[in-house]
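HNH endonuclease
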Amino acid sequence: MSNRREFTKPVYAEIVKRAMHPKLGLCCEGCGLVLGKKPYHVDHTIADALQIDKSRKLTADDGKLLGVECCHKPKTVDDVGVIAKAKRVEANYHGFAAPKQKIKSAGFPVSEKSAARQTKIPLPPRPLYRPQEDTP
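Tokens:
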């Protein structure tokens, strides 16, 4: 079940009426493109997941009529990133940390090509210092 609030029918109708141009018909409120019969969505101006007070009723000012291809898809992609960041910041604030240990599972098998490269004899380690010799 989603916590997202939906617009009521009267508010939805008010948003569609606001986007209606007297001569051209429906226009996208994001870019001004004349939509005509193209699909559109009424979307929250500020993503609903970012709203703290969800008890307040939604008004026509809280929504925009956006064309699906021109504005709604790009806005949704941006909103998903912003919401994910907000959740990470909130989790960090509350002290939740991402696991730092190594993933406990079997490693990938060594390929034939990689195994052939590993047959070379490695060089011995280079000494970091030389012992000092006594000179007469």
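The mean pLDDT is 87.
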